[in-house]
């Protein structure tokens, strides 16, 4: 661990984006102080100070300087702590481009349809979201098969950038069946992704970091109830 | 200086995303074969090399495709020596990536939404979003440039390319809707920067006249109208 490096992470236990950063720090063996947003009295102030543009977590604070946006933070960690622990991004520039492409796909294409399938405003929208989610999962399955080339992780023999980007969603992937009756990774259509999530989830650096599924389910149920109440209230 | 590389770019003359890549390649002194795509009639090559998104730009290097403009910019920067596009310091790189993401995720959908809007109300909403986003970018310029003339310092860098590629479209929107996204009173720093960017050698080489963008927008609107009619 680099001496004199002060690392703090402003996070929220249920956030997949925060989890990504925790996974990266864990994989690289970096110590940090974790500050839970939920427990903060002055969270509004702190977020405004360190992330005035988005006012969201995660925020990584390195020697007092904030870095925001999970994928930006991941690449920052990889570059600022290049000599420490494994690299998240591959060394080869073409493989790096492929990794960045799939990370962007997960956030820009896959996540929006996952959200639609569980939080769509109408039954129709949710059904469409579910269909699209299956399609995007199949595309990602293809990526693991073709880019992974039979290796256990997107990063090859060990977990890397794309594994961490997708891995942040692991808790919610597990909670999804009980919450929404949907398996984002279907064992029949996306068997490689199912195997990947078990393998990634079992990693020593990962297992203790992923939030408890039952806690996420409880949180998810409460969130759904709130949304339903708001919708009912709005239509009165 | 890069030796003879096998570089091909599938693009569209009016696409800001393609222009970003052309600027980067030019800044690195790289030669490439340019192929203009007809997005209303996509080529086999495009569909084969970008099956996921079916969009331009696609850079083909020694037969291997790289997609997504920001991914391509970083690829070109990391692989080829010469002028640096991204900063070298990790914290400055993180700042550049943060703002590139902001421009992509917040500013871009907003101004494109102005073009795509099917009703006045929707357009007004998108205008509001665009103006709100550009204000954040004005603050970003003050922070990133550090008193210099470009986001990248004293010469054009990553953020200059990412945002600068939109400028001729902003001018097109001004001609079409009388909208000033960047103006001297609300966003003075960006207004001055836009002049400098527009007048630069790098921009003059690849950025088309705003009228080309207006023409393309009219083409898109006409096609959308046809679709609407034929779906009735």
From TrEMBL, chain A:
Nucleotide-binding in keyword set: no
Domain GST N-terminal: 5-85
Subcellular location: Cytoplasm, Cytosol
Ranges for domain GST C-terminal: 92-231
EC code: 2.5.1.18
Any single Pfam family the record assigns to this protein: GST_C_2
Gene Ontology molecular function, alphabetical: glutathione transferase activity
Highest taxon, organism lineage: Eukaryota
GO biological process per UniProt: glutathione metabolic process
Keywords attached to this entry: Cytoplasm, Transferase
Reactions performed catalytically: RX + glutathione = an S-substituted glutathione + a halide anion + H(+)
One GO location term (cellular component): cytosol
Main location: cytoplasm
Similarity annotation: Belongs to the GST superfamily. Tau family.
PANTHER family: GLUTATHIONE S-TRANSFERASE, GLUTATHIONE S-TRANSFERASE, GST, SUPERFAMILY, GST DOMAIN CONTAINING
Function summary: Is involved in the conjugation of reduced glutathione to a wide number of exogenous and endogenous hydrophobic electrophiles.
Name of the molecule in the record: Glutathione S-transferase
Organism for this UniProt entry: Miscanthus lutarioriparius
UniProtKB/TrEMBL annotation, chain B:
GO cellular component, one term: cytosol
Keywords: Cytoplasm, Transferase
Presence of the UniProt keyword S-adenosyl-L-methionine in the record: no
Gene Ontology annotations of biological process type: glutathione metabolic process
Chief localization: cytoplasm
GO molecular function annotation: glutathione transferase activity
Residues in the signal sequence: none
EC number: 2.5.1.18
InterPro entries: Glutathione-S-Trfase_C-like, Glutathione-S-Trfase_C_sf, Glutathione_S-Trfase, Glutathione_S-Trfase_N, GST_C_Tau, Omega/Tau-like, Thioredoxin-like_sf
Domain GST C-terminal: 89-220
Subcellular location: Cytoplasm, Cytosol
Sequence ranges assigned to domain GST N-terminal in this UniProt record: 5-84
A Pfam family it matches: GST_C_2
Substrates-to-products reaction catalysed: RX + glutathione = an S-substituted glutathione + a halide anion + H(+)
Main function: Is involved in the conjugation of reduced glutathione to a wide number of exogenous and endogenous hydrophobic electrophiles.
Family note: Belongs to the GST superfamily.
Protein name: Glutathione S-transferase
Organism expressing this protein natively: Miscanthus lutarioriparius
């Amino acid at each position: 661990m680099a001496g004199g490096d002060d690392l703090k992470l402003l996070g929220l236990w249920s956030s997949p984006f925060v989890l990504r950063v925790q996974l990266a720090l864990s994989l690289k063996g970096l110590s940090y102080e974790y500050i839970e947003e939920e427990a903060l009295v002055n969270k509004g102030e702190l977020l405004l100070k360190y992330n005035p543009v988005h006012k969201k977590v995660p925020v990584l604070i390195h020697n007092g300087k904030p870095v925001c946006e999970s994928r930006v933070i991941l690449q920052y960690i990889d570059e600022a702590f290049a000599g420490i622990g494994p690299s998240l991004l591959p060394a080869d520039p073409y493989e790096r481009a492929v990794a960045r492409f799939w990370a962007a796909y997960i956030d820009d294409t896959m996540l929006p349809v996952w959200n639609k399938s569980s939080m769509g405003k109408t039954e129709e929208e949710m059904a469409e979201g579910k269909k699209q989610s299956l399609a995007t999962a199949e595309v990602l399955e293809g990526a693991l098969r073709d880019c992974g080339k039979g290796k256990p992780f997107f990063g090859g023999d060990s977990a890397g950038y794309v594994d961490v980007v997708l891995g942040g969603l692991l808790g919610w992937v597990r909670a999804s069946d009980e919450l929404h009756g949907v398996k984002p990774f279907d064992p029949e259509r996306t068997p490689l992704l199912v195997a990947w999530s078990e393998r990634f989830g079992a990693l020593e650096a990962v297992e203790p970091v992923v939030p408890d599924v039952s806690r996420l389910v409880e949180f998810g149920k409460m969130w759904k109830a709130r949304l339903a109440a708001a919708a009912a209230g709005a239509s009165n | 200086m890069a030796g003879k590389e096998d570089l091909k770019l599938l693009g569209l003359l009016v696409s800001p995303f393609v222009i970003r890549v052309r600027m980067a390649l030019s800044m690195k002194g790289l030669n490439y074969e340019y192929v203009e795509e007809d997005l209303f009639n996509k080529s086999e090559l495009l569909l084969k090399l970008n099956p996921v998104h079916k969009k331009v730009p696609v850079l083909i290097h020694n037969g291997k495709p790289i997609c997504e403009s920001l991914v391509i910019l970083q690829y070109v920067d990391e692989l080829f020596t010469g002028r640096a596009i991204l900063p070298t310091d990790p914290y400055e790189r993180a700042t550049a990536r943060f703002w590139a993401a902001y421009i992509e995720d917040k500013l871009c959908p907003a101004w494109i939404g102005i073009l795509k809007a099917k009703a006045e109300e929707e357009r007004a909403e998108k205008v509001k979003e665009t103006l709100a986003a550009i204000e954040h970018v004005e603050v970003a310029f003050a922070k990133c440039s550090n008193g210099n003339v470009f986001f990248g310092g004293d010469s054009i860098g990553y953020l200059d390319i990412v945002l600068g590629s939109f400028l001729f479209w902003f001018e097109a929107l001004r001609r079409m809707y009388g909208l000033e996204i960047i103006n001297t009173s609300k966003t003075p720093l960006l207004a001055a920067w836009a002049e400098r960017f527009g007048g630069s050698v790098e921009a003059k080489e690849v950025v088309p006249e705003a009228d080309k963008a207006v023409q393309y927008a009219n083409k898109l609107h006409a096609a959308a109208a046809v679709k609407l009619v034929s779906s009735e």
